[in-house]
Amino acid sequence: MRVVEGRAFFRGRFEECCIGIENGKITEIKKILKGDERHSFGSNYILPAGIDIHVHFREPGRTHKEDFRSGSAGALCGGVTTIFDMPNNDPSIVDVRTYQEKRRIVGSKANADFGLYVALKENSSTDELSKLGCPFKVYMTGTAAGLGFGEYDRLGEVCEGVGGDRHVGIHCEDKSLVGSGERDLEDFLQVRPNEAEMAAIKRVIKSTDRKIHICHVSAKESIPLLENPRLTSEVTPHHLLLNMNSDLEGFGKTNPPLRTKSDQMAMWEALVSGKIDIIASDHAPHTIEEKEQSFDVAPSGVPGVETSIPVMLAYVKRGNITIERLINAMMERPAEIMGLNKGRIEVGMDADLIAVDMHNVTKIRGDDLHSKCGWTPFENWEGIFPLATFLRGRLVAKDREMQETGKGKLVLGDEKP
User: Is residue 364 in a domain?
Assistant: First the structure.
């Protein structure tokens, strides 16, 4: 039996205890346990590991920016043991064939547990796709991968066609309200206004009675709509911590855009109060060379899977959000939303754990991260990185270095671990 010892977040509070692990599961939680392999962290925190349901690891087709090996290594070193990867690849993941081919390509490279989204379009063969059991994504605007949903009058029919128990996440921007020709971050907000997000969410609510997950909420006008019990929602660290006045130029270009300080503060209030369910990184890396192009040409997206937990833990230390709410938003609720046996330190759960020293505050630097893109919008910001990360009880990362590779498994889809 493996044993992890420290101040574990157990049943809503921190207790000094030992966590016994066998066959990847938590089997015992006691004050004292003996084991063949022991990891003691003294008075430091033991938390459930993070679950990030929105990343873009760029494989297949754009692996000069990222691949599953580098992206999942960054996830583990940042305290995330489970990720869900988006379908805007080359080729795009839109049917059983492309899904299974992506599954074949990335499986041996996955350091973290994972799921793979399939994109839904107006002409998707939902009967065929529903058999996969994977999560699905709808893009209400166009994408570089050509995945924009066509006629919105088919939106509800398509979302319902994959089955009511399937996870469907929607990028909500009404394409009729989205323009082009942006020149800077402030201009970009004008061509992708708050109204586009709000109108899209309203359209989703009217289109279907099934459960829908709203991706990367960013506009303050959207918050009241999230009270609908059929919706769950996420916010990204970059929409919580950055705005259109951030000194990032093309490096801050992302969809939906960085908005005003007022929107940013509204996201914080909604997260802290629980009106927004979870935090997801929307990790979307591009190379420095791509981002240094003129603003209108630079691709949209920022990296974040490795820094999301560390930067948010720094805000816990500052008192902006409680550790309990952060654990709920980055561990517990993502597991519940995706139907995973993860996210809590309880007997019978997957032994996905991180050890954290809340006094170990460091500077975030792009050169120290594992992403191929080599930069971060949080350069020189404070972060608290995990001392260690355990995936199903195995020590996979320590002091921001990989210890074991290739241990990730598919957790939602056509086969399960």
Answer: no
Residues 147 and 256 in one domain: yes
Of 2, 168, 22, 26, nearest in space to 87 by CA = 168
pLDDT in tens, 69-86: 999 999 999 999 999 999
Rounded to whole angstroms, the Cα distance separating 340 from 150 reads: 32
- Regarding whether 333 and 397 lie in a shared domain, the answer is no
- Beta bridge partner(s), residue 69: none
Q: Domain residues for 213?
A: 49-338
Distance, CA of 231 to CA of 210 (rounded, Å): 9
Told to judge if 52 belongs to the known catalytic residues of this protein, a careful annotator would answer no
Q: Are residues 380 and 323 in the same domain?
A: no
| Set 263, 282, 350, 352: catalytic member | 282
Instruction: Show the tokens assigned to 251.
Output: 């490096």
The reply to whether 93 falls in a domain is yes
Q: Structurally, how many domains does the chain consist of?
A: 2
Alpha helices in 78-211 (DSSP H): 96-107, 126-129, 155-161, 185-191, 194-207
pTM over 0.90: yes
